[in-house]
Amino acid sequence: MMSLLKDLFSDYNYIKICFLLAFLVALVLSLKAYIFEFLESMGVVEKSERVSLLRRIGIINKFGSRLGRIAQWVRETKFIKDLCIILLMVVATRLIMFLMAFMGWMITKDESIGFWSSMEMMWNRWDGGHYLYMAEHWYTNDMSTDKRFHLVFYPLYPVLIKGVYFFVRNYFWSAMIVSNVSLFVGATYLYKLVKLDHEEAFAFRAVKYMLIYPITFFLSINFSESVFFTLSIMTVYYLRRHKWFLMGLCGMFAAVSRNFGIILLVPVVAEFLLYIGNAYKNKNDGHFVKRMLNGLNILFLPAGFSLYLLLNKVISGDWFTFLRYQKEYWSQSFGMFYDNIKSTFVNAIPGVSTWGAADRISLWVPQAFSIALVFVLVIYGIRKIRNSYSLYMLAYITIALSPTWLLSGSRYLMCIFPMFVIFAWLSRKRIWDFVLTYASIILLAYYAFSFSCGFGRMM
Questions:
Q1: Are 197 and 230 in contact (CB under 8 A)?
Q2: Which residues span the domain enclosing 72?
Q3: Biggest CA-to-CA distance, the chain
Q4: Could you list the residue ranges that cross the membrane (predicted)?
Q5: Do 277 and 308 sit in the same domain of this protein?
Q6: Tens digits of per-residue pLDDT, 6-52?
Q7: Global pTM value
Q8: Buried b (16+ CB within 10 A) or exposed e, 304-326
Q9: Can you state the angle between helices 387-400 and 418-426, rounded to 10 degrees?
C-alpha cells in the first residue's frame, strides 16, 4: 500500500494527478453553469429555483447540514470570505510556481526523484542555507570558521524556524512553513491596508500583483524576505489605524528581521506628524498631549535595531562587527546608489559586460530591470499614493541600492510594498491588467526555474 502511494505521488504522476483534478473540477463547474444557463434560457427554471431543483434531484439533499451552514456563514461573513479568497490566491500561485519550476528542473537535470523530495534541492540555495544553519546552531564567534560571518544576518527568522522545528523536526520545511504562513498574513494585511483608501477590487489587484511579481518565489522559500515584508505591512497598517502599541511592536520585530526594518521610521514619523498636526490645528491641548504620548511607541523601532547591535556585542564583543564582516566577506560597504545603478546596467549589457550570458541574464538583467521598474513606479505613483508611502519608497531605494558590490538588488526592492499599490493603479484598465498579469506570470515562471536550477545566484 505504501509503495503504491509512493509511486502515485512521485515525479510525473504527481503532476498528472494535479492537472487531472484541476481539469475535473473545472469541467464539473463549467457543466453545472452551462446546464443551469441552458435551462433558464428555455424558461424551465428561474434563478430562484436553483436550490429547490438541486434538492429535488438529490445533489444537495444535505444542504442544511453542518457543512452547508459553514459554507453559508463564510459567504455571509465578509472578512472570512475575503480571507478564503486570499488563501486561495496564495495557495494557487504557490502550487503553480513550484510545479512549473519542478518541471523545468526535471528537464534540465534529467532527474526523477519526486516533487516533494526535490524541493530542498531546488530551493535551498545561497543565503537560505545560512538561515537553516543559524536555526540549528545559532551564531558563533569561532574565528577558525566562516560561520562567524552569519552575524550579518538578523535573528528573527532563524528563531521562528527553530520554533516551528520543535513540531516539524525538519529545518528546511520549518522555514518553508514560516515563509508561506508569513506570506498569507502579509497578503491579508496588504489587502486590509489598501482597503483603507480604495475599493475591494483595487485591494485584491494589489495582492494579485504581489503574488505574481517575477521574483515573488523568495517570499515562499527559506529566505527572510517574507517575514520582513509582512511585518513592514503590519507596521504601516497599525500606523494608519492609530494602533500605536501594535505599530511599535510590529516595527520592532521588523527591525530585527532585516536591516531595512529601521527605514520604517520614515513613514511612521511622516504619519505621526500629520497625526499630531491635526490635534494642534484644532487647538485641542488634551488631544495634543495624548497624541504626543502615543508617539513614544515609535521608539520601539530603534529599540529593535538596538537589540541587533546588542547581539553583535554579546557574540563578538563589538557593537558593529556586522559592518566589518560585510566588508570582509561580501566586499560591501556603504556607497553611492547611483554608482551601483551604473555598474548594474553595464554588467547587464551584452558586449559591454564581462560576465557570462547565464549570469548576465539571470542576475544582472533582472536587477537592472527591477531598478528601472521601481523608479518608473515612483514617478508614476508619486501623486497616486500617500506622501508617506512615496517617502518610504525613496528612502528604501536609496538604502537598498547603496551597498557596494550590489548583487541582490532585485530581492531587496521586491519588499517595497507601495509598488503593488501602484501596480493596482496601473491595471485599472482591463487591457493593462491583462498585459501586466501575463507578463508577470511568464517572468515569474522563468526566474523561478532559473533560481531553482542554480542560476541567478544572488538575484
A1: no
A2: 9-76
A3: 83
A4: 12-35, 83-107, 171-191, 211-239, 259-280, 292-311, 361-382, 394-425, 431-449
A5: yes
A6: 444 444 454 555 555 555 555 555 555 445 455 555 555 455 454 45
A7: 0.82
A8: bbebbeebbeebbeeeebbebbb
A9: 120
